[in-house]
What we know:
This protein is mostly helical. The protein contains 15 helices and 2 strands. Strands 1-2 form a two-stranded antiparallel sheet. α10 packs antiparallel against α14 (about 260-280).
Amino acid sequence: MREFKKILDQRVKETQEIIDRYLPEETGYQRRIMEAMNYSMQAGGKRLRPLLMRETCRLFGFNGGERDVEPFMAAMEMIHTSSLIHDDLPCMDNDQYRRGKKSTWAEFGEDMGVLAGDALIVEAFSTAAGAFAGTKHPYRVGQAIRILAEKTGIYGMIGGQVVDVELTNRPISMDQLDFIYRLKTGALLEASMLIGAVLAGAEEEECAKISKVALNVGLAFQIQDDILDVTGNQEVLGKPVGSDARNFKTTYVTLEGLEKAREQVKRLSEEAVEILHSLNRKNGFLEELIQMLITREK
């Protein structure tokens, strides 16, 4: 475990260094928007999505995708960050703090918060398209951009958010909750791993398996969040526990109970690892990373 933590810390550091290279320079009359974008991008976080992307590319031996994957890592974190900025806005969750710092709109104003979130989405696709310069595999890059767009938009993260917003303070069925989790949380995780596989030239059947692994991980990750909101330690989590119940929020735990939620996490994680093994490829760090995400205590 100690060795894994050491490798994890090093690879998170490498991931952050890659992302930093693609952040906009704070200059020009419009520099205020760059400041807001960079404030949000450098506010901390686990960098899970770009990390999963690179490790999946590594799983397939990189195979010419070593450099191509880097702009996509930055692009993915930009899109994830844009969603957090928009989530915090007064018209959405109205959160003034994130990760111990003022949220973007609280620091820069609501108008600049909206614009910073929008700008990061646009900048993400500009950054991803930069992979075409110098690549030996333009078709792979094109496929990856398509995946990024699909899993960000109305059939992915934004689609899940729409249903979540529409059903606020209304009864939610298990099918609806599953839909929200798979799109709002799972879509970007799926895109991250799938893009890593595509850029490494993985076969279609292998990509389908990676998608299934990622969807299971995303769903298990969100259900574990639900569990920790009931059982977690506030000091360990770094945020209040029991907020779901106080806000009358529908979760897997409120619908199915704690025991069934735990069983679902176990089933999803075991299935994900089993599919990963069926690829007959080895990346022990990726497997440990997936297990850590699912069984985490914070």
